[in-house]
Amino acid sequence: MSEVVLPQGFSLEPLHRNHQRRLFDCGQREVNDWLHTKALQHQDKRLSATKVLLNRDIAIAGFYTLATGQVDFGDLPSELARKLPRRALPVAILAWLGVSVTCQGQKLGDLLLAKALRDCYEAGQTFAFVAVILDCVDDRAKAFYRRWDFAELPGNPYRLFLSSQTLRAMMTSPAR
User: Fold this and answer.
1) Domains of the chain from N-terminus onward
2) Which position has the higher pLDDT, 131 or 84?
């Protein structure tokens, strides 16, 4: 996957206090609430990092939040876990991703996911992890992530993963 290029008039930057978080609406109450009330607090506490996509009017068109975590080797599919130690394993977490209802249908979700995965890949060059994990809020979100080769974790159909090997293949192939 080549470098992620933002559409003209858009910029991506770390979330800060001056961003108008409360005006963001992606149509999902949970996702809105995260950005409105928790994202900055978690970022200040170094629990996660949120990047916002700003449009020409400096309004938040979309965002994603990344964090690190662990998953028990037994929660991973056997083909991924079989060569790994039997303990908690490091993972990158795509905690949240949302696109404003006013910007939906413009492929900004794909762009934000591509950028989030690029950030994970680059971080993985310094801090290793076995997979990128995420939790889907609904079937529509699940279908979106499945298009990007995310697979279900056994026993939890709304928790998806992308192995670090698959991520590496995505990032080192010429195009997606």
Assistant:
1) 11-172 (3.40.630.30)
2) 131
